[in-house]
Amino acid sequence: MKLRPPVIDYRRLRPGNLLSPEFRHVLLLLYWLAYLLSFILLERLLPAATYNTVWCKLDDLIPFCEWFIFPYMSWHVSLLWMSLYTLAYDIPAFKRFMWYLILTTVLAEIVYVVWPSQQLLRPDLAALGRSNLLTKLCGIIYTVDTNTNVCPSLHCIGGFAILFAALDMPRFRTKGWTVFFVIFALLICASTVFMKQHSIVDFFAAIPVILIGWLAIYLPPMIGHRTA
Q1: Which has the closest alpha carbon to 202: 212, 189, 211?
Q2: Cis peptide before 152, with omega less than 30 degrees from 0?
Q3: Which residue, 178, 197, 214, 189, is CA-closest to 101?
């Protein structure tokens, strides 16, 4: 994909003009700092005794598969890439992308406070009967990424955020790109259960949050375009 010059010359961005109409959308990037801080606070402040274990029978039928570490980890890279890409080439899409993330994250974290959750599905990697680079990477993820505050799944919510942002831009509305981003979002969702980072319940719990975000952020512009 050939990169074009950004629609705004961010080299002219200064503290003095950050609040100007041309650049104030950049402040939405503060979402990432707020997200990290709020998630850390939730992890530290919620008493362990309050966590509700999330599980259903279907979880036991889903095998652990370390190959899903690729779509699982691509979630982080893709969110960063979509943030920077829309920031550079489509400001309205950037604003909607960020507001979708803000709204859905707030909704998810309200659930975490009202109904703290955890999952106990992670396998004993030492007892798998196989050891390779991917299982070792999974072990690292298990160490740095807790198994609490999982329902609804932010990974699933973020996967659909990438899909919605892509379809919000004319460049990615071709059949090929649409199929790619749909499959990509579904792989991210699948990775959460095959990596045993989430119960399938967390995916289904994410669906209402995803729908609310789409209805609030992406549907109104679509209606506006059709009635214009």
Answers
A1: 189
A2: yes
A3: 214
Cα torsion 39, 151, 180, 67: sign: positive
Reduce the DSSP state of residue 52 to 3 states and report it: strand
Give the whole-angstrom CA distance, residue 92 versus residue 109.
26
Give how far Cα 140 sits from Cα of 73, 121, 189, Å.
12, 16, 20
pTM for this one? 0.94
Distance separating alpha carbons of residues 125 and 136, to the nearest angstrom = 8
Q: How far, in whole angstroms, is CA 202 from its chain's centroid?
A: 13
Alpha helices in 145-199 (DSSP H): 154-167, 175-194
Which pLDDT score, from 0 to 100, does residue 146 have?
87
* Residue 227 confidence (pLDDT) above 80: no
pLDDT class for 1, splitting at 50, 70, 90?
low
- What is the crossing angle of helices 91-114 and 154-167, to 10°? 160
